[in-house]
Design goal:
By secondary structure, the chain is an alpha/beta fold. Helix content is about 35%, strand content about 20%. The two termini are about 30 Å apart.
Length: about 300
């Protein structure tokens, strides 16, 4: 049996969460085209006859602009330190710039096996340019292995799993074979609500949003009652989230309810409220209340 922890790292929006969701065959991590979608480590489990891979999705590696950003950077760096194998995901359609160079420099200091995953190959029409990009990544990252994939289309994912099993050490299963994630359902539900906000709201609003689930209880008839708060930083943002006549909040709630029902396979009665917590991303007490505890990363 092979087993171990695999850290997914890379810039924002390169497809880390999409890749992890498709590898395990179930949506656990939320996705969107906006940066800072993933804010903390999300752990999922893939098990088959060969062994068990524990994937650890991390926030996109970028420069911190506030205490929440610092938390996200620390999460990524701590995950790198503790993983057995590093999975560096890059976007085949993007220019190789300073951000990739900085990540490569950090990874060079780490002695764990590095797999370079070139994602979104389905969007590249110029195969020669793709080959040149891959060659450049190989030259300055010097990965142990390289796999080109399309996470969205699930192309070459079996090859990627084969590669990871070859690099992982022999060891026991860390989780029961039926386990897909250790994330609490309340946390997943909160993230699915935030995902809808990310997709529907203007660019300046989503970065200042947090979601807390105040109540999640299943009735005797199987219906789940779920009460949640969408927290923002400004009164003006609160108005945008609610929308004219409450229409935006209704759209967010409808999309989130459908996603939660698909995951839980149960009917969900979702109620949403919007609250303002000014500058919460730079407030230690507020960050901790939303699950972003800096002290927990230093243990």
């Amino acid at each position: 049996m092979k087993s171990g922890f695999v850290a997914l790292i890379g810039r924002p929006n390169v497809g880390k969460s999409t890749l992890m969701n498709h590898l395990i065959g179930q949506k656990i991590a939320i996705t969107s085209e906006k940066a800072q979608t993933t804010r903390s480590q999300i752990r999922t489990v893939y098990t088959d006859a060969r062994g068990q891979i524990v994937f650890e999705d991390t926030p996109g590696m970028t420069r911190a602009k506030n205490k929440l950003g610092r938390f996200m950077v620390d999460v990524a760096e701590k995950t790198i330190e503790e993983a057995d194998v590093l999975l560096w995901i890059v976007d085949a359609t993007e220019y190789i710039g300073a951000a990739e160079t900085e990540i490569a420099e950090k990874l060079k200091k780490n002695h764990r096996p590095l797999v370079l995953v070139v994602n979104k190959t389905d969007k590249v029409k110029d195969r020669k340019a793709l080959a040149e990009s891959i060659e450049k990544y190989q030259s300055f990252a010097r990965p142990k292995e390289l796999v080109a994939v399309s996470a969205l289309r699930s192309e070459n994912l079996e090859l990627l799993l084969d590669t990871l099993y070859q690099l992982l050490p022999e060891g026991p299963m860390f989780y029961d074979e039926d386990t897909v994630t250790e994330e609490p359902m309340r946390d997943i539900a909160a993230e699915l609500i935030r995902e809808q906000a990310l997709r529907l709201l203007r660019d300046e609003v989503p970065h200042g949003i947090a979601v807390t689930v105040e109540r999640m209880k299943e009735r005797e008839d199987g219906i789940i009652d779920l009460d949640a708060n969408i927290v923002c930083e400004r009164e003006s943002h609160k108005g945008m989230i609610i929308g004219r006549g409450g229409q935006m909040l209704k759209r967010i709630g409808t999309g989130a309810r459908i996603a939660i029902e698909e995951l839980t396979e149960a009917k969900v009665n979702l109620k949403l409220w919007v609250k303002v917590r000014k500058e919460w991303r730079d407030n230690d007490t507020q960050l901790k209340s939303f699950g972003y505890d800096m002290r927990s990363l230093r243990k």
